[in-house]
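Methods — Computational structure assignment.
A single polypeptide chain was analysed. Its primary sequence is given first, followed by the predicted tertiary structure written as structure tokens.
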Amino acid sequence: MLTEARQAPAAVACQLQRDQDQWAAFGARLRAQPPATLLTVARGSSDHAAHYAAYLVMARMGRLVTSMPMSLVTLYQSRIRCEGLASFAFSQSGQSPDLVGPTDYFRQGGALTCAFVNDPASPLARAAEWLFPLHAGEEASVAATKSFIAQLVAGARLAAAWQDDAQLREALLGLPQALEEAARADWSQAVEALRDADRLFVIGRGLGLPVALEAALKFKETCGIQAEAFSGAEIQHGPMALIADGYPLLIFAPRGPAQAGLLELAQAMRKRGARVLLAAPEGTPGATLRIVQSPAEELDPVSAIQSFYPMVEALARAVGNDPDSPPHLKKVTRTQ
């Protein structure tokens, strides 16, 4: 896991040098015939990456994006209308039937279908009309790291291609260097703070929420910690009742419109006695974990999760777990 997490900057650099003509053609297609309905199709870590792509599309293009409940097609045999539909599938392996089935159904129905997948020979890759390989290389670790980061980058490339945004494309080209720095960031304070934790909340908002979701999953997978992710707004409802003295919180507060509210939340939770780990850019008041700034603030969540992965791998080992062989899990999950 640690080796593959550290390979992510090189994987991103590789991806950014590939398929440029295909991305340009896809962007032109989206601009020429904008879809009326947009869906993402994904599970697990890939669904978190799809959430990031969807947020970018909604924020930049003003088009609503829905996360597809795949069982509507695979179990309930729903006859979903495909006119004006675009389906974006995200997967590391491209093997799960509940991703392949809807993608094939939508394509047969005339929808625009696209797959962002690490295995270009997979059934999902063959099912989609448009294929964008992640170019992350083989990923043996059960806990996805570099493939997740590659999927985040694919989501950003989707937004850049759709808008024909040269500024975002240029920022993406500078991202591997920022990720190299992020991979070396010292987050050891979190290992010490969470060594004895058996539960925690992971908080984000906006473009930072997908990496909070991913971080919570990795705490479960590798450390056996009951971690739950919440929006910085949502936690102030029912979940607030659980936060007592010493309750651990990891708050992702990258640059952007959501940051101010997250910083206020961190300060309020500290006053309540919570054990707050605040991940934010250097110089941010109250920050305990450094988020390396990327070439564009919309890409800061990518550098945040790059720094998180080595930390959670170290935490897993500190609590006596083997992050490379988490119990009861398989690399490829095939669900219907």
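Note: The chain has 14 helices and ten strands.
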